[in-house]
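Revision sheet: structure tokens.
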Amino acid sequence: MTAMLLMGASAFAQTASKVLDKCAATVSSKTGVTANFTMQSAQYGNAVGTISIKGQKFYMLSNTTTMWFDGTTLWTYMASNEEVNISTPTAQQLQTLNPYNFIHLYKKGYSSTMTTSQSAYTVHLTATDAQLKITEAFLTIDKTSYEPKEIKMLTGNKWTTFTISGLKKETLADSKFRFDANAYPDAEIIDLR
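Predicted:
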């Protein structure tokens, strides 16, 4: 009986992985994807904006912050004080900055379970490595399109929830993921590298 339960649990985990693989394939595009998002966070506050992704690169424009990440360097522009911080984030830091980082998140250091509703899969990830910054996550994925609809992540004891809509594939130039100082001539640049 125990062996059957373990086999069933293993098959269920494989199903969650397959759903996440299909979702990752939908979001991963060699040319790029763009989507709208709203963020509610006890740690970072609330924001509304758009995000563009191409491989490991991302560009996020919100009502509070603009971020460019070219795969190595992160530029963060705060409109409220016209300041740009330049850094080289760690993989751990990127987990909390880019809501689409779940594309790679589930492959290492997490166990998964899944529930289904009429229109969506909800995958629950739980960290198996105490070093991981995101200790728990819930990913709601549309059953038909395999597009992510909601990403809810626990960092420390604070939840951050991203609601995603309007996902579309686009051809994005690499320059979109790098800060252009000429477009922000009055910004103070602080290099933290």
